[in-house]
Task: inverse folding
């Protein structure tokens, strides 16, 4: 029965989509699944129970899939506390490593291939950078509010045209606060209050257009 349970546990570990390794209080390997080994460039049966964490780290360095400097801190970490590390392999794959202490004084490490996520985040950041560049170079002022009337984004031109030279025109500012700032600065002229009320009454769920004079 014990052997059958052990076999089920081994099958479960090897079927996980995350690599996992467990060490005892003496920092010696208790068990490791196949994915944890392969993500670190090792053969599934290379790390053996009883090996010290420094031996496993040295084995990973010799495998050569990670730059040596990324492994240098592995043996000196405080495994009594949770920690996270991200390592990039020579082949470009990005591996996230999480370590959590266990009640018996040991620790469990998990390894996840986050290459796709990292690439998606980088692509999203690049798209955002390009869009921000385009927004800042438009010859029209534009701002974008969310459903609650809070500013999400605006370009330099709208800040200038609307008379918001300072941090009042920052993400999170409310439409109402921006109107009040325009009135206070005199941007809307003598009819500022009336113009502001007109702006408040516009049905923002539909396209709208209106003109106003700039009092500056």
Result:
């Amino acid at each position: 029965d014990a052997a059958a349970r052990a076999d089920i546990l081994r099958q479960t570990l090897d079927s996980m989509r995350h690599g996992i390794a467990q060490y005892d209080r003496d920092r010696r390997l208790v068990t490791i699944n196949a994915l944890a080994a392969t993500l670190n460039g090792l053969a599934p049966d290379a790390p053996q129970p009883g090996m010290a964490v420094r031996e496993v780290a040295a084995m990973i360095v010799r495998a050569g899939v990670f730059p040596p400097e990324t492994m240098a801190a592995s043996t000196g970490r405080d495994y009594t506390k949770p920690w996270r590390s991200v390592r990039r392999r020579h082949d470009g794959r990005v591996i996230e490593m999480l370590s959590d202490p266990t009640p018996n004084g040991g620790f469990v490490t998990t390894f996840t291939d986050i290459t796709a996520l990292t690439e998606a985040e980088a692509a999203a950041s690049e798209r955002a950078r390009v869009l921000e560049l385009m927004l800042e170079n438009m010859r029209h002022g534009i701002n974008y509010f969310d459903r609650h009337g809070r500013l999400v984004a605006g370009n330099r031109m709208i800040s200038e045209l609307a008379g918001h030279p300072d941090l009042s025109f920052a993400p999170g500012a409310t439409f109402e606060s921006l109107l009040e700032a325009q009135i206070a600065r005199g941007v809307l002229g003598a009819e500022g209050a009336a113009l502001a009320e007109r702006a408040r009454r516009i049905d923002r769920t539909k396209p709208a257009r209106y003109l106003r004079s700039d009092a500056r």
